[in-house]
Write a structure and sequence with these properties.
480 residues, alpha/beta, Amidase signature (AS) enzymes, eleven-stranded mixed sheet, 16 helices, 11 strands
Length: 480
């Protein structure tokens, strides 16, 4: 995979140029269209930006991300570029503004190469719910890249960009990072602005990153972090400075929290083999292990489903074909059949035609949980979420970080779980807890399983401890 740090050094040594790199990547994307990684490619603007980056390098004033090629998940608003959320409902939508993360990236010389494929409205774990067709895993095209940010993970794995931006609601960055063999990072909730991220579940959506290594992750994170006046949920904190501290020494002894063995039994043997090897590596780094009795892990996925479907039901109400989105009125074949249609029937037809089965399923489930007879379920889920966060914070009084698998399996085959939504939801078994608690978490490519498919492992730290997370992650990756 491409390393931005190495590329930047080559440009400084005049061994490469931003324009050559950009042209090469755009050509590769065109030659490998069958992977279906990009829903829109930003050709002209990318080449113009690359020329500007070369001028800045030549003048000795390159910015922090000068010439970094970046893929952006297609639920992150980009001015004048289609932002579809992988849905027919927004097939022709072009935002009139940039999301805050894209503004910050562009201001530091980053080049948005295009918009990456995704599960429709970020609802899925395989990229198979995209209206525009599934994205393929570049490691083995018979397998899914994971989801919902599968296109961004595949973009980095296929060498179509140095880094990529995605969103993580319950594991949607970390799980595809594991399936595609990249680094996938989700920050503390509030650390990165969500302004311009089209919402799935507002209280759980995180913007995060994909890359080949920890240095690139830290560099990009430092640029996009920090308070944003346009996002009331962003924390009142300045941008981070993790990149400069990433090589600071680790403590000679530290404590690592582990899950009890009965929870690890859910993992496939090839995942457990990688897990065991990394336990040895952590021990060699100086780790002491503490088994944490997380009784709540089994209820994280159900809690996540209640909260996310409820919030999605509310957030997606705006996509009715009248205020936003696809409308059957634009279908000239309907003739006069719409003359006497009620507004309710019109909205129902617009949404039924504009949204896929998985999105409709989650909207209906969420509406059920928010109905007057069932609101108690939603309120109980919120209380459980508070207890989960409290348990995490208490656990970090005993340990420095947690170590656990990212997913129970390696990537599964296309169409393998399409007819079994419950099995698909359980793909997030090891990732939802950190999302519910708002804790920073990272998936690291630390081995390979059956069929030479990548296996990712997670590290998690306490709130706002991304610097610690990166230092431990880099050290662990260096041992592999």
């Amino acid at each position: 995979m491409k390393s931005y740090i190495n590329f930047r050094q080559n440009v400084l040594e005049q061994k490469n140029t931003c324009l050559n790199e950009t042209k090469s990547v755009l050509e590769e994307i065109e030659n490998k269209k069958e992977l279906n990684i990009f829903l829109a490619v930003n050709n002209e603007e990318s080449l113009v930006s690359a020329e500007e980056s070369d001028k800045r390098f030549a003048n000795g004033n390159p910015r922090k991300l000068e010439g970094m090629l970046i893929g952006a998940k297609d639920n992150i608003s980009m001015i004048r570029v289609p932002t579809t959320c992988g849905s027919k409902m927004l097939e022709h939508y072009k935002p009139i503004y940039d999301a805050t993360v894209l503004k910050r990236v562009k201001a530091e010389g980053g080049i948005i190469i295009g918009k990456t494929n995704m599960d429709e409205f970020a609802m899925g774990s395989s990229n198979e719910t995209s209206y525009f067709g599934h994205c393929k895993n570049p490691i083995n095209t018979e397998y899914v890249p994971g989801g919902s940010s599968g296109g961004s993970a595949a973009c980095v794995a296929a060498n179509f960009a140095h880094t990529a931006l995605g969103s993580d609601t319950g594991g949607s960055i970390r799980q595809p990072a594991s399936f595609c063999g990249t680094v996938g990072f989700k920050p503390t909730y509030g650390r990165i602005s969500r302004y311009g991220l089209i919402a799935f579940a507002s209280s759980l959506d995180h913007v995060g990153t994909f890359s080949a290594n920890i240095d690139d992750t830290a560099l990009l994170f430092d640029v996009i972090s920090g308070i944003d006046e346009f996002d009331s949920t962003s924390a009142n904190l300045p941008p981070t400075n993790t990149f400069e501290k990433i090589n600071d020494p680790l403590p000679s002894k530290f404590k690592v929290g582990l899950l009890p063995n009965f929870l690890l039994e859910k993992c496939a043997d090839d995942v457990l083999n990688v897990y065991s090897k990394q336990i040895t590596n952590l021990k060699n780094m100086g780790a002491e292990f503490v088994v944490l009795n997380f009784d709540f892990i089994d209820i994280c996925v159900p809690t996540y489903i209640v909260i996310t479907t409820s919030e999605a039901s509310t957030n997606l109400a705006r996509f009715d074909g009248i205020r936003y989105g696809h409308s059957i009125i634009n279908n000239s074949n309907l003739g006069n059949s719409l003359t006497n249609i009620s507004i309710e029937d019109l909205i129902a037809k617009n949404r039924s035609e504009g949204m896929g089965d998985e999105v409709i399923r989650r909207i209906l489930v969420g509406a059920y949980f928010l109905s007057s007879k069932n609101q108690d379920i939603y309120h109980k889920a919120k209380k459980i979420r508070s207890l989960i966060k409290k348990s995490f914070i208490q656990a970090f009084e005993k340990v420095d970080l947690f170590f656990l698998p990212t997913s129970t399996t390696t990537a599964f085959k296309l169409n393998e779980k399409e007819a079994d939504p419950v099995s698909m939801y359980l793909s997030d078994f090891f990732t939802t807890a950190a999302s519910l608690a708002g804790m920073p978490a990272i998936s690291l490519p630390l081995g390979f399983g059956n069929n030479n498919l990548p296996v990712g492992m997670q590290l998690q730290t306490n709130l706002w401890e991304e610097e610690k997370l990166f230092r431990f992650s880099k050290c662990l990756m260096n041992l592999n």
